[in-house]
Amino acid sequence: MPHPLSRKIKAAAFAGAASLALSACATVPGANVAPGSPITAEEAAQGAQYHPQFVAEFGGEMTGPYASYVQQVGANVAVQSGLANSRDAFDVTLLNSSVNNAFAVPGGYVYATRQLVNLMNNEAELAAVLGHEVGHVAARHSARRQAAAQRNQILGVGGAILSSVLLGGNNPLGQQLSQLSLQGSQLATLSYSRNQELEADQLGIQYLNRAGYDPRAMATLLQSLAAQNQLDAQLQGRDNATIPEWASTHPDPASRVQSAAQLAGNATGVTNRETFLSRIDGMVYGDDPAQGVIEGRQFIHPELRLSFTAPQGFYMVNGTRAVSINGDAGRAQLTTGPYNNDLNSYLRSVFQSIGGDQQQLAPANVQRTTINGLPAAYGTATVNNGQQQVDVTVFAYEFSPNQAFHFQAITPAGQAGTFNSLFNSMRRITASEAGSVIPRRIDIITAARSDTVASLARRMAYTDGQEARFRVLNGLGSGGQIVPGQQYKIVVRAN
């Protein structure tokens, strides 16, 4: 079975290919289909084609009771859209990802990550998110965007956007590095306009009403997501708590909370809070050890038996293809590729992959060294991004004759040493260290009369931000208090 980071490389290749295929095809499925019309055969075929790759891109499909519950709720709300008359026409997938995300693609395929589900506080919020995504499909938003991309001759949404951020213009180097920063689904569902987001919210609220759910759940979920964005920024030491639109499948949810509340009006419906909480009790929260975990500035992967530490002032994001290390002074990512017991050849192949067909990229020279007992090779290439000189550094490590990992980093020219502490921190971990990595899980508890926010927050399995994490997880604002007898979520270490 391939290593998870090996699958990341395959997924990265798919991400670029899918982006090009979707924007360059002669006919965009659904582009001329009226909003709310049934799923066409062409749309169904497109969805079926990309479904397995999207699943792999987000850590795989979860099965069992958690997945069955999400499937049931999603199908119940999706059938209100008019895309199909049968709940069986919709494939609703719970993804094993620690990223807060949800999306849908033509053909009746709807997705939500377990992390986003864990953030919710009732079944109506789950239905709201899934209904919103179905709304995008019903309104043929992706088809319209793809058709517009054809007219504008845009060949790859993700690369074009992020290359301008990282390297300026339409630089192939920027496209290669940026593809490792975005999920494949983001490349296919990126850049909905504000009007399209509001239309999807409106459609989702209509579906909630038809299914008998409280339509105000759309606003409360968006509020929780905005609060989580802000908390993530604070915990990572970022000043700007808003996720840039070029790095998210959706605009900042905080800007849509009020609109969603106004759309819901005074309508009411069921929330099924207790049912929902009982159904997510015990679900993995945060990183799955099988995909590696982030603890403060340390990343540790118990299955691949490796660990490294991010430099002070940088924060990490554990994606399904790469681990990203981000900061004002530069960006780096850990990933892997095919290896045949030759570090020098491996290093040069990474540079060639980054440069692509349009730019010959090679290090000025290749240096060999040993890092914590691991054979290693590294090199740096200085290139002009159209605006300034930048250094691209690749630092590779041999773990076995057929397995290597590497960091690829970008910094302003002359500042490649920014990541020296990162490069020097890579090490192989012991079996004991690997065995000590225990996942976190959601635990549903009932508040006692003596409980307070502070007392329950102290039970959260974190060393920082316990109360803030508890409040966001349970949708409690800064002034919210505990209600005795009511159920709440806490995050604990799995036994």
Detailed description of the structure:
Helix content is 40%, strand content 20%. A seven-stranded antiparallel β-sheet has the order 8-9-10-14-13-12-11. The chain has a four-stranded antiparallel β-sheet with strand order 5-6-7-15. Strands 1-3-2 form a three-stranded mixed β-sheet, with helices on both faces. The protein has 18 helices and 17 strands. Mean pLDDT is 81; it is low at 6-32, 147-190 and 242-249. It is an alpha+beta fold and 495 residues long. α5 crosses α11 (217-236) and α11 packs antiparallel against α12 (257-264). The protein is globular and about 65 Å long. Residues 1-26 form the signal peptide. One of its GO terms (molecular function) is metal ion binding.
Q: In oligomeric terms, what are we looking at? A: single chain
Number of strands: 17
Report how far the terminal alpha carbons are from each other.
27 Å
Instruction: Characterize the biggest β-sheet.
Output: 7 strands, antiparallel
Helix/strand-derived category reads alpha+beta
Tell me the helix content: 40-55%
Protein name: Peptidase M48 Ste24p
Pfam families: Peptidase_M48
InterPro entries: Mito/Outer_Membr_Metalloprot, Peptidase_M48
Domain Peptidase M48: 68-261
